[in-house]
Amino acid sequence: MIACTKCGSVENIVKSGFIRGKQRLFCKACEVHFTINLPQKEINKTARQITIVDIAKSLGISPSTVSRALNGRSDINPMTRQEIIRVATEMDYRPNLLAQSLNRGETHTIGVVIPNIERPFFAGVLAGIQKVATEAGYRVMICQSNESHSTETLNVQALVASRVDGLLISHSKETTSFDHIKLQLRRGLPIVHFDRVCNEVETAKVVQEDFEGSFVLTEHLILQGCKRIAVCAGPRELLISISRLNGYKAALAKYDIPLREELIYHTNFIKGESLLALDGWLNLPQKPDGILAVHYANAIDMIVELKKRKIKIPSEIAIVGFGDELIASLIEPSLTVFHHSPFQMGAIAAKMLVDNIIHKDTFQPMLQKMNGELIIRQSSLRK
């Protein structure tokens, strides 16, 4: 307790500012001012985060004075600034970075929405995003739609509510309405699409060579002698599925191979559905001699099932898949794939978004295609 130096009163003492490195006090009983050195033991050290209000109260000055001193403003007496800094250090004051960011209208945080974090492809994309974002000084908030349109919409709303500076998104296979994206674009939020994109909005996009990759895989089967090539396609409405199916059709047309509807089966990339497709093809009067899976995991599922049925790969049925993973090279026979780099896709998408955020007024949306590579393995190599 502090007593008045004149009348000895304790209960009438109030803090009234700070002068020449000392705490200034006022006694309401005898109306006298006096100063003391502030004991360190009286510094308020609590578990909660110290604010400039706490510092101001301990010194008997206004929060605005503390703020100006800590922000290096020139309209503060040097001795006052020195004492404020000393007390702030003793109280273990740490600036509220989020509050500072919001005052500047930015959080240095970007949001990411992906369909399925368990898929190795999207894990690779996230690694690329994280690297570029961190190097650029941005934090990353990640949401998973779990292939649900409604969850995707809620993800976007949650990230916007968290005041992200921009959004990276790959749509769910259920998403056919893009109002939740159009709304945020109208509000000026920088958005970049990757992999599963939307052509209804003008955003920067990073995509794979979906048409080209499917064309190359189908052409490879044809050059290996396949004439009846089945395709395990993806959801009918998904843009990547449409592009990959069109690549398959274009390759057949190039070599004058008739398109057979019974050899086209649309799935949701689910194992059970791809095996239903395989079962249907094997029960046809004329079985396929080649299979293209637009998702490599479905190709692996079918290889396992064909081996169970004692069907020789590739001599009876050759099989190829779009996309790559370590297991594709380890399975017996190893899977021929069209390889792409998810890490590079994530890095490019993140760089585009950072550029969009920094140069919001001059940024021009563009389409970036990722180069892919045909990797020929045992599952298709007949010659």
UniProtKB/TrEMBL annotation:
Domain HTH lacI-type positions: 50-104
CDD domains per UniProt: HTH_LacI, PBP1_LacI_sugar_binding-like
Record keyword Transcription regulation present: yes
DNA-binding is among the record's keywords: yes
InterPro entries assigned: HTH_LacI (IPR000843), LacI/GalR-like_sensor (IPR046335), Lambda_DNA-bd_dom_sf (IPR010982), Peripla_BP_I (IPR028082)
Alphabetized SMART domains for the sequence: HTH_LACI
Protein name from the UniProt record: Substrate-binding domain-containing protein
Keywords: DNA-binding, Transcription, Transcription regulation
SUPFAM superfamilies named in the record: lambda repressor-like DNA-binding domains, Periplasmic binding protein-like I
